[in-house]
Every structure is written in structure tokens, then in C-alpha cells.
Amino acid sequence: MTDSLHSYLEGPEGAGKVMAHARLLTRLASLFQEIVPAHLGQASSLANFKSGIVLIYASNGGVATKLRQMAPTLVDEFLRRGIECSGLQVKVQARTRPAAIRTAAQKPLSSRTSERLTALSDSLPPASPLRSALEHLLAHTAREE
Q: What is the topology classification, in CATH, of domain 2-92?
């Protein structure tokens, strides 16, 4: 099974062209990160390579402008490293940021609220699910002094 999958992925009738392009993009992306200054490399990424044109996505307009100014130098550097590059295209594409994880702020129960919840819990039958939930809440909640 593993051999047949490997031969399918590498074969010309299978996904061979896609795999070859993926390897090329991986190589180009690492070359791009080596060539550009670190601050520009962190704010951009190599997106595609088609018909000799390298496509770069920049996270904002300022980075895109700097990369466009560097385009002749980058093309020369790709050529020097054996990549048949005839041009560079830069597009702005803002990176999506992961949603900030908000932690719930624990607010202590006031003494009055705590007393009322205890009274409610005591008034419920011993086998009541609500009573056990209230007891759990009271046992694990901070109280105001």
C-alpha cells in the first residue's frame, strides 16, 4: 500500500507534477527567506512560481513597497542561485490573526449572594441535580471578604 501510494504521488500520471511544484515552492520559499532582510521575510511569504514569475504576498503596503523596490535585486539573486526567474510580483494579503483567547475573569460572590445560594441549596431535595450544582458552585467559587 505504501509503495503504491508513493509511486502514485511521484508518477507523472498521478500527482507527480503537483509534488514537483510543491518541492520547488518549498525550495524557493527557503531561498526567499535567505535573500530578503529578516524583517521583510517575517512580514511576507512566497506564494507561487509560474512562468518564471515569483509571486510574493506581503502583509501590508509598506512591506510590499520595499519588496517592489528590491525586485531587481531579488530576481538577480534567484538567477544567481539557479532559479529561472524573469520577474517578481508582489501582492498585499493581510495575514489572518488567530482569535485572541479570552480568559474569564473570576468575580467573587458577595456574602449576600453566597448566603442566598446556600439557603436555596438547603431548601432543595438532597438528590436534586440543581442542589448538587449549587453546592459545587459554592464550593469552587471565591467569596468576598
A: GMP Synthetase; Chain A, domain 3 (3.30.300)
pTM: 0.58
Considering only the C-alpha atoms of the chain, give the largest distance between any 2 of them, rounded to a whole number of Å. 83
User: C-alpha angle with apex 43: 38 to 47, nearest 5 degrees?
Assistant: 105
Assigned C-alpha cell, 12: 507523472
Q: Per-10-residue mean pLDDT for the chain, 145 residues long?
A: 66 75 93 94 94 94 96 95 94 75 77 90 92 90 73
Q: What are the b/e assignments for 47-82, b being 16+ CB within 10 Å? A: bebeeeebebbbbeeebbebbeebeeebbebbeeee
